[in-house]
Design brief:
5-stranded mixed beta sheet, 335 residues, 3 helices, mainly beta, Methylamine Dehydrogenase, Chain H, NUP214, WD40/YVTN_repeat-like_dom_sf, structural constituent of nuclear pore
Length: 335
C-alpha cells in the first residue's frame, strides 16, 4: 500500500439554504407515551445527560427498538401505528403507551445508545462502559432478554459512539468519551486503534472509516490504515472564532453518501461552553473519497441550527448532528 494522500480542499463556499415542498411527512396518529404516566409525571430521562441514540428501526423485522431508563423495548411497527391512531380517535384517556405494545422488554438500566447491525440480526445496547449484544432471532421469537455476548471499555472511559462495520462481518468500532477509538468483533475483546479522536463514522458499505482529530479529517481503510487526509476549513467562522480562548471542535460526522461527508462542529469559548453550531458538507467529483484525485468541494452552513440552546440541549453531550439517509429518494434528514 502506498503512502496516504493529503487532499487539499477547494475554497470554502457558504451553502445555500433551499427549502422544498417535494416531500411531506404526516403523523399517522397522535403521539403516545413511551412508558405509563401518572398524574405528576417526571422527566423520562436525565435532562443533563440524555441518551445519545435511543431509537432504531428494523425494516426487516418491522420492529422499533426504544431505550428507556430501565432498559429498552422491542415494539412491532404496526402496533405502534395502531396505538397512535387509537390515541387520535379515542382521546388521551384510552391511550396505550409503547411499553403496552412491546414484544420484549429488556432490563438494562442506563442504556444510552442502541445500534442495529447491517444485516439486522444483532442489536448492540451501550451502557456506560459496557456493550451488550442481543440476537434479534432470540429476542423477537423467543423473548430471550439475555445478551448473547458483551464487551467492555474497562477503565478507558464511557461509550460516546458505536458504529457497525461492513455487512459481511460482525465487527464494529467504539469511540470512548476520552477520544479512544477501538475495534471489536462479536465474541472477541476490543483492540485500541487510535487516540484523540473527536468523531467517527463509516461509509454506507462500512468498509472505510472517517475520523476527525482536531482540524483534520482522515479516511481509514478496512484494516485501519490511513489512505487520505484533509485539513478542515473554518474561514467563514474565523471572524467570530479568533478571540482568545475560543476553539472549534468537530462534534459529529455523517458519511451520508459515497461522495458526501457531513460534519457538525461546535464553537467552544474559554469556559468550554458551546456557542453556535456549524455544518459542513464535503463532496468529491468521484463516486467515493477513496477514488478522488482532485480537490473536494466544501459547503459551509454557519449557525445552521438556531434552536439549539443550553436550556433545551445541554452542552457536552453531543453528537448534536444526527443524520439519517433515505436512500430510496436520496434525501438527507438532519437532527
Amino acid at each position: 500500500m502506498g503512502a496516504p494522500r493529503e487532499l487539499e480542499l477547494s475554497d470554502e463556499v457558504e451553502g445555500e439554504e433551499d427549502g422544498t415542498t417535494d416531500f411531506v411527512f404526516r403523523l399517522a396518529g397522535d403521539p403516545i407515551p413511551l412508558l405509563p404516566t401518572d398524574s405528576n409525571p417526571l422527566p423520562l430521562f436525565d435532562l443533563l445527560s440524555p441518551p445519545a441514540r435511543p431509537l432504531v428501526v428494523s425494516d426487516r423485522h418491522a420492529t422499533v427498538f426504544l431505550a428507556h431508563p430501565s432498559g429498552f423495548i422491542a415494539v412491532r411497527t404496526k402496533e405502534l401505528i395502531e396505538a397512535s391512531k387509537e390515541a387520535r380517535e379515542k382521546g388521551k384517556a384510552s391511550t396505550r403507551c409503547a411499553q403496552d405494545c412491546c414484544v420484549a422488554d429488556v432490563p438494562l438500566p442506563g442504556v444510552s445508545l442502541i445500534a442495529l447491525s447491517h444485516d439486522e440480526s444483532v442489536l448492540a445496547a451501550c451502557t456506560d462502559t459496557e456493550i451488550q449484544f442481543f440476537s434479534l432471532a432470540s429476542l423477537l421469537t423467543h423473548k430471550d432478554v439475555v445478551p448473547s455476548s458483551s464487551c467492555s471499555l474497562g477503565r478507558v472511559g464511557t461509550v460516546k459512539d458505536f458504529k457497525w462495520l461492513n455487512h459481511a462481518s460482525a465487527s464494529y468500532i467504539v469511540l470512548s468519551n476520552g477520544g479512544l477509538l477501538c475495534h471489536g468483533s462479536l465474541g472477541e475483546g476490543l483492540k485500541d486503534v487510535m487516540e484523540n479522536v473527536d468523531a467517527v463514522d463509516c461509509c454506507k458499505e462500512g468498509n472505510h472509516i472517517a475520523v476527525a482529530r482536531g482540524n483534520k479529517l482522515t479516511i481509514l481503510s478496512p484494516d485501519f490504515r490511513e489512505t487520505s487526509s484533509m485539513s478542515l476549513l473554518f474561514q467563514l467562522w474565523s471572524d467570530e472564532s479568533d478571540s482568545e480562548g475560543t476553539t472549534i471542535k468537530v462534534d459529529s460526522i455523517g458519511w451520508v453518501h459515497g461522495d458526501s461527508i457531513v460534519i457538525g462542529c461546535v464553537r467552544l469559548n474559554e469556559d468550554d461552553n458551546e456557542e453556535g453550531y456549524l455544518v459542513q458538507v464535503i463532496r468529491t467529483e468521484e463516486s467515493t473519497f477513496c477514488e478522488s484525485p482532485g480537490k473536494p468541494d466544501v459547503y459551509t452552513y454557519v449557525d445552521f441550527f438556531h434552536g439549539i440552546m443550553d436550556d433545551a440541549l445541554p452542552p457536552g453531550v453531543g453528537p448534536n448532528l444526527l443524520l439519517g439517509y433515505l436512500h430510496r429518494w436520496y434525501v438527507n434528514l438532519g437532527p
